[in-house]
Every structure is written in C-alpha cells, then in structure tokens.
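A brief tutorial aside. Many learners find it easier to grasp structure tokens once they have seen a single protein encoded end to end. The record that follows does exactly this for Cation-translocating P-type ATPase. Read the sequence first, then the structure, and try to relate runs of similar tokens to stretches of the chain.
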Amino acid sequence: MHTMFDKESHGKTIDALTAEFETDSERGLSAAEARRRLDSGGYNELKDRPRPGFMALLWDQFNNFLIIILIVAALISLALGEYVDSAAIVLIVILNAVIGVVQESKAEQALEALQKMSAPNASVIRDGVLVSIPGREVAPGDIVMLEAGNFVPADLRLIESVNLKIEEASLTGESVPVEKDASALLDPAAPLGDRTNSAFMGTMISYGRGKGLAIGTGMNTQMGMIAEMLQSFENEQTPLQKKLEHLGKVLGSVCLIICALVFIYGLFRDTHLAQAIGGDFMAYLRAEEKDIINLFMTAVSLAIAAVPEGLPAIVTVCLALGMQQMIRNNALIRKLPAVETLGCATVICSDKTGTLTQNEMTVLQGVAGDCQFKVSGEGYVPQGEFFTGASANDFADAQRFQPQEYPDVSLLLRGALLCNDATLKEEPQDGGASVWRITGDPTEAALVVAAAKTGLWRDALNEQLPRVQEIPFDSDRKRMTTIHRVDGAPDIVAAVGSAVTAFVKGAPDVILDLCTQRLEGGKTVPLTAEARATILAQNHGMATSALRVLAVACRPLDSVPDAPVPEAVERDLVFIGLLGMIDPPRQEVVEALKVAHGAGLKCVMVTGDYKDTAEAIARDIGMFKPGGLVLTGSEIENLSDAELAKCAERLQVCCRVSPQHKTRIVDAMKANDHVVAMTGDGVNDAPALKRANIGVAMGITGTDVAKQTADMVLTDDNFASIIAAIHQGRIIYANIRKFVYFLLACNVGEILIIFSAMLFGLPIPLRPVQLLWLNLVSDGAPALALGMEKGEPDIMTRPPRSPGEPVIDKMMAISIGVIGIVDAVAVLSVFLLAQARYPDHLAAAQTMAFITLCTSELLRAFTARSETHSVFSLGLMNNRWIVWAVIVSFLLVLMVVYVPFLQPVFDTVPLGLNDWLLMLPFFFISPLTMEVLKVFARRSR
C-alpha cells in the first residue's frame, strides 16, 4: 500500500492504482483502515518548517551588539557595587527581549488562526457511505467526491469526470479552468499542466463533478513538494536590521574608545601619576585607589551615557505598535522587522484578480435587437438598473428602462439564465448580515446576477421553462446548449415558432457564424450582411473596452431529441444579443494608486489575463501611464535577465504570465536596486514571494504555502491595504529616526558635558546615577512617545528612501553634533554660575546642571516630533502621549530632587526659586536650536 505520492499515477490505469493502494473505487476505505493510514502516515496537511523554541527566540533578541555592551556595562556596575545602575540596565534588556518574543509569537498565532479558517472539508466514501470529513483527515487510498465549488483536498487520480473543469491557477498559473478527462491515459512524462486525468490539492472545482482516488496527501502532494523546497530558502535581513546592527557596532566602538580615553586622560591629568611612572607605580595605585575607582565609574557612566539603552526596546515597541495598527488595516505582519521594510518599498508588483479587482464578474452592457443598454451595480449583489444612452459608467443622462418592456432584452436575459449552470445564493452571516455567493463559473454567475437584477431567478425560470436536454460546453466548440420546453412563455413561442427551443451561449464570432436569422422587436427576421457587420462591430467595441463578451442565440426544434447532436442542433440559429462583462476594479484602488504614485512608488500589474484586457483595466484604474511597457509571458521568456532588468524601469503591465515569471520580474527589479513588494496566492507564487523583499499573500484566496512563505498576509486581499501598510511603514521608520535623533542628541550632549569638564579641569557636573536616571526617565519616555506619532502630512508625497540610506544621514549627524554642543555649553554655563553661587556646595551645582539638562531635553522632545516641520505647525497637543510623557518625566525629575529619602541616592539637594530663575533661560536654548536647524533641513530636503 502506497503512503507516498505516486508521481506517475496519470500513466496508470484505475484498476492498477486501486490495487496498488488497496482500496475499492465504489466502497472506498473502511473507517478503521483510513485511521490506521493517518496514524502511520500523518494528517493531510502542509507542515511549516520547525519553528524556533522559546529559548531560540529569546537568544535572537539578545544577539545584538548594543545589547551585549549593555550587559557588560551591567556586570561591571554590579561588580563595583552600583546595584541601581546594574538593575536598571538588566530591566531594559529583559523588557526588550520579552516584547520581541511576545509580538512574533502573536503574529504566528494570528496566521495559524487564518489558516484554520481556510481549511476545507472533503466528501469521501468510507465503508460504501458518502461522508463529509475535515480535509486534513483524507488518507491515501480514499475515494473523494468532487462537485462545483469544492476545493480538491489531496492529489487525486480521477476515476470519473462529468463536464469536470478545475481552476488550477494556484498551482500551474493557468488562468482558464482546465477540462478533465478521467478516461485519459497519459505519458508518464506528461508535464503538470497537461495531466487532464488528475486533480491537485488546493485547486478548485469550477464546473461539473467527478470522483478521484487520493494518491498523495499532505507533504506528499505537488503543493507539499513546493512547500518543502521553500525550507531551504534563507531569510534576508531587513534594511532596518542591517542599519541598527551597523549603528550598534559604531556606538559600541565609540563607547569603548570613550571609556579608554576618559580613564587614561583622567589618570594622566594628575601630575602624581607622571611621577609614579618613574617610581613605585603600584604604591601610587594603592594610595589613589578610591579616586581611581571613582574615575573608572565615571568612564563607565560615560559609556552608559553614550549607549542609548532604550533604543532596542523603543524600536521593538514602535514596530509592535505599527504591527497592531496594520492588523486593524487588514495587513497581518508575520515578522516584526518586516513592518519597517514596507516603509522603503519602491515597487509593488500586484496581481489583478481579487487584489486590484473585486474578483466578481459583472455584466456592464449588452445589445439585443436595436436596444443597446448598460447595467448598474457591481459584484454578485443582485441590485442594479438598466439604462439606454449611458456613456461608459456615467448614468447621469441615461434613460432607465425595464427589460421586461423590451422583448429582445427580456429574451436575451432569459436565454442567458437558462443556458447556465451557475447558482446565486444569499448566505446569512454573524450579526444578522448576509452575503451573496455564487457556485460555478464566474462568467456564468455574472449572467445569473444580471438576470436577478430584473427579478428573474433561475429556480423559478427552470420550473416555468424546464430543461429537458443539454450539450455541455466544449472548448473546441466554444459554446454550450440547453434545450427547454417553453410552453409557459407565449412570447418565446411566438418569437421562435415552437414550444421546444434550444438556447446556445458562447463566443460571439462562433455563435454568429451559426446564425441565419436574428431577433428584432420580438420577431425573427433574416440576418443580413449589414446586420452581421453591425453585430461584429458592437462585439469589437465591447472587447476593446476590456469586456468579456458572450453571445446568446436560440433555435426552434420540432421535438425533444433523445440524444442531441451538436451538428444537428447548433445550426440555423436565431441571434438574440450580446452581453459584455468585466471583473470591476475595487473602488478604493484608484485612490490608492494616486497615493502610491504621489509617494513615488512604481506599481506593476502582474496577471494571467490577455494583453488587451490587462492593459485596458490598467488604464481604467490609472496604473498604465504614457510611455509604459506591457510584456507578455512569452516575451519575458525571450528576454535575458539583463534585457529584462533594462526593461524593468518602464514595465507597468505583465500579462499572460505564469508564477515562474514572477521570480524573474522580482530579480529584474532588484537588479535595479528596488525594494520589491510582490503579491501572490498560489503555491507556485511562493518562490517569488520568498525572493521579494516583501512577500504579500492573499488571506482569503491564498494557499497555505503562500501564507507561510509571505512576510505579510492581506486579510481582505485588497491592493489598498498594501498602500496603507506602506504608509504605516513609512510612519514607523520616520518615528524611529525621530527618537534615534532625539536619543543620540541627548547622549552626545551628556558625553560632551562630562568630557569638557574633565578637559578644563572642572569637577564632574553629573553623577553616574544621575546620568542613568536621565537616560531612563527624561530620554526614554519621550522617545517612546515619539514612536506614537501619527505621521507628518506630507509623508506619502515624499519619494521612497534609498535602501542604502543610513538611519543617521549627514544632516542628522550635523544636527546631533550642534545640539550636543549647545547642551554642553548651556549646562556647563549653569554649572559654573551655580559654583559661583555655591562655592562650597558641589552637590547644589550638580543638581542645577542635572535639572537644566533634564528640562531642556524634555522641552526638545516637542520639537523632535518632526525633522522639518515646526512644532507650531504640528500643534503642541496633537500627540497626547508626548504631553503625558513629558509631564510624568518632569515629575520624576522633581521627585529625586525634592523627596528627602531619594536625595542621598541621587546626590541632589532641593533648589529655591532663585535657582529656577537662573536656570530658566537655559531651558530653551536647545529646543530653539533644533527649530533653527529644521530650516536648513527643509532646504536640504
């Protein structure tokens, strides 16, 4: 008995396969045998690569250069008895790690819930009885029943097929449903797309019915093979990860150099050391032990000042908050750093169907006799009206009419509804709402909805005009025929002259060639050459408007044939009319594309549709611009990688492409230094999703493999949600820059204060514990509040930033240096004035220096909300988080100054009103300097 996937089942007979799998094509497996096979071979589900355990996730959070330096600083502080410093650093490190682990775990749990929602059921024969089971419980050897609307739950060798068509786009990229023939015996080497006697896991039955033998389940399916291939792909670091890693190494190196310089300079500043070098150096060290330890602690505190301890935690919190916002906007981010990567996306390669369009074919216009009409309404909701004289989608000057009043239009809609196998049903949803769903071919469903808009419903019409015979659709004939008794419709009997009528639906050119008459005013008249030319022109006009056009005709029959023959029935037809339909664009996509173009994003449509349709839709939604390039899959095949990369800058529409072409398109864009977001829903899309900088899977129509591979999952399959996610990504990166700017400006100021004091032989203006309190309170909380900014108004009118752009660019580096110098000048000025006021009270001067630096940094937090916009144009109170952060931080600063039992811990003394009046002008020097720097930043941008 086979438990593995049979790769050559399409080349074997049914009898050979049922014997091989020890099953019966009529009775199926027994329940006990199916359970045994599931226990031994595993469930029918795709397995993701083993996820890292808690300790591995935790290690990833600690494996960071900045974090390692902080841990070393904590250990040194602990060894020197500075328990408060050590505990504070450890707390920050642990907070950062826990937040990172929790957020990544939440994302994975949300994705798992989404996958469970899309898990289909399966109808199988067990012990000779048809039962419905979860798809994951299908076992090798099961006999599976297939009907229109079902997902194929496993890889099957078909045993029976009745007009069976399967949508295999998710696996092969073939946009047209594939006709299946269970009786076919194929060459074992037949490619996947040509295996007409097989059905594959994850594809969908669009028409007909069938029965199949499960020859592969779970990872032993075609989908599973692709999923397994993906396990070898390595994840690339995101731009933010690379930049923060580089920044951490630079800051860490600077810290070590500063520590060494300060310590060595402090030692050599004392002339006793110079004398000791020539004498008893060890005796000198013993004599000066206390001063040397204090000097060493000063160096360590300076290193602590240089490292923005809160940066990793604040970055993580900012990304986590951005992730939560994106989930509310229908974008599920699987990995935390991918939130930021969206902010530097330069190209979006988007599927058309369901992403740019509604994935709901809709009849927009038609012609019957001398009546040309348009239909309002979208999607599968049967609400809309019929108009004559409408232009495009503008119904303002059109005349509303009732199709029942026009016999030709009425017969056209009834013929389209009768010669049809799709169904439309209203399904109740939670909360009392309902949704309209179709079963069957989407094109036929559009005809059913159009008829329903006039009050025609298939069940009622079939009862009035029962179907008695049919000739199924055939891709060679390009048409379908149904035969009905029409006694219940006197107007049809009068029009065609018979109580038995055949309705034929199909390609307009094919149907027209079979017609000798046409319907006009409810009567049959000869089809002249002039009328034929007019109909062909009408068909061409609809087709060039990106509409898919179907023709409907009929033929009176003398009686119901026992076995209708196409050649006998489908001749001398009476032409009734044309119906043109389209998968309409999503309403929000046009505006989203305007925003994307304004943001400098290049948008490319990638679709399996024909060139004319794809280009017309791209023009309608504003994606195709003058000078743009359209490439078909065959043209892409004929281009080398270098030639494709050269074409990539002009590329706007890719049509008739297979999922394999998507990877080449991604590589071509990346060769031009683009950051690419690629959408996909199929199994074969997975390599392209993995290859792209941001892989975007569809949450509704996407396969499990696509969702597991992607960086982001759209829960509404909507292009506009991608733009919203990119908007949020830009906000997040801008906020990260803001608090990096704010934190480093604070830290550089602290370094210059300490270093300058030592250089000029002054006492240290700030105690180590005061520096740590500064970084934890006055720096940390406002920096976190900066991460809550909602974004500047022009953020989506700026061009995408270069992926190679550093977090700290030239202008920011200059500004950090200037602000650091201004802070040092202001604080040292206050310190010197305080020393003059309190010549024998160093703690009072240090307290005033501490208050001055804290307050000026807190005030500067308001101006740090934008690198270019004035604080007055943004509004002081627009970010309530920063208001509360500044208030709370200022109260905590006052607490260590005025609470008696904290004064000895922080080496502070209470200050009087005159002291505050002395410090007051110096509070505003740093914030005003930043506002002046914004003027230069605006000019440079």
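Self-check: The chain has four domains: 9-45+119-230, 61-101+237-322+726-790+802-940, 331-356+586-717, 362-582. If you spotted this yourself, you are ready for the next section.
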